[in-house]
Specification:
Low-confidence stretches of chain B: none
Helix content of chain B: under 10%
Low-confidence stretches of chain A: none
Oligomer: heterodimer
Largest interface: A-B, 23 and 23 residues
Order of helices and strands of chain A: EEEEEEEEEE
Helix content of chain A: under 10%
Largest sheet of chain A: 6 strands, mixed
Radius of gyration of chain A: 13 Å
Chain lengths: 113, 115
């Protein structure tokens, strides 16, 4: 079946602009995660959604970062007033309710000039 | 707090030889442990996991890993390496005792299999 999909695959933006990154999880998966992969920091957790529960936002690095999950499916990660240090690959993952295995999408490579 | 250490940035092995990629972890409770592989310009692919039960876990592509609670280790192994196994490997942990499902990843180990 279809895996996790993310769009765009690449995004180049200018410092100070806002960006939106999209994630489509595997159908039927109740949990959705966002991670960031960068050379200096490795793989970092950002935010986690599980069903209708309040999201775990403990990994968001600043209040410029926010995420929504609409209808328990698609999620959008928004970065406001982008900075050069936001340049990274943003990875989305999903998992079924009864299983801890997280299945990752191909990622969005964000470059802030 | 939970953490993962992958002490080797790179592992080099000849094709056909056995390979080991090391991982040690730290959690306050009992761990869920995972291995993922990343090929260039791709996302992470799940290889295997330890939840409970048998300490030797078998996964995709002939990989296996052994959970050792006393040494807090979860090393990834394969009896006979292939050139196509060359990739970046990540170990990850989650503390089973908390409700927090976010994974903490190691820094990654690049595996290079030479023909």
């Amino acid at each position: 079946g279809a895996g996790v999909s993310q769009s765009p695959s690449n995004k180049v933006t200018e410092k100070g602009k806002d960006v939106e990154l999209r994630c489509d999880p595997i159908s039927g998966h109740t949990a959705l995660y966002w991670y960031r992969q960068s050379l200096g920091q490795g793989l970092e957790f950002l935010i986690y959604f599980q069903g209708n529960s309040a999201p775990d936002k403990s990994g968001l690095p600043s209040d410029r970062f926010s995420a929504e999950r609409t209808g328990g499916s698609v999620s959008t990660l928004t970065i406001q007033r982008t900075q050069q240090e936001d340049s990274a690959v943003y990875l989305c993952a999903s998992s079924p309710f009864s299983d801890d295995t997280q299945y990752f999408g191909p990622g969005t490579r964000l470059t802030v000039l | 707090a939970q953490s993962v250490a992958q002490p080797e940035d790179q592992v080099n092995v000849a094709e056909g030889n056995p390979l080991t990629v090391k991982c040690t972890y730290s959690v306050s409770g009992n761990p869920y442990l995972f291995w993922y592989v990343q090929y260039p310009n791709r996302g992470l692919q799940f290889l295997l996991k330890y939840i409970t039960g048998d300490n030797l876990v078998k996964g995709s592509y002939g990989f296996e890993a052994e959970f050792n609670k006393s040494q807090t280790s979860f090393h990834l192994k394969k009896p006979s390496a292939l050139v196509s196994d060359s990739a970046l490997y990540f170990c990850a942990v989650r503390d089973r005792g908390t409700g927090r499902r976010a994974l903490t990843f190691g820094s990654g180990t690049r595996l290079q299999v030479q023909p």
